[in-house]
Amino acid sequence: xxxxxxxxxxxxxxxxxxxxxxxxxxxxxxxxxxxxxxxxxxxxxxxxxxxxxxxxxxxxxxxxxxxxxxxxxxxxxxxxxxxxxxxxxxxxxxxxxxxxxxxxxxxxxxxxxxxxxxxxxxxxxxxxxxxxxxxxxxxxxxxxxxxxxxxxxxxxxxxxxxxxxxxxxxxxxxxxxxxxxxxx
Length: 184
Prior knowledge:
By secondary structure, the protein is mainly alpha-helical. The chain has one domain (18-183). The protein has six helices and no strands. The longest helix is centred in the last third of the chain and has 27 residues, at 157-183. It is globular. The protein starts with 17 loop residues before the first helix and ends with a helix.
């Protein structure tokens, strides 16, 4: 998967706020998750609606927000700084999800709360799985694949989990690490 991402700051010497880092990470994570959905479709996996695509994006974002949390917990981030970053990232992604859901749904409601609830559930769930410092463990990747499978079309459900675990997540992690190395 080849996508353009913002992986450097223009002024490298300036300290960044949690909101600035969260915004930059959110932008890039949204692009990465969107590229994953596009790749799934190009590989012949079935998605029927834009809402279904957004459901897949939401599951992938839940996974990657947790990866950011794990990465920052292993770096020299204070608990307050880490919490502020994850909160800013979650709020940024929730706003983007809300805006995208409003574009495709007749029902005008607050989609941010649904997304934040999903993130909280995934953060809690993924916290019980291994993370070796550089990579999410097998069970964590598998569970993400299962969540994506649950929101995909019926046609290819038995293959989606393997595709997510073995192809989508490793490819996305390569791009994400380039982003994270300089932004976090």
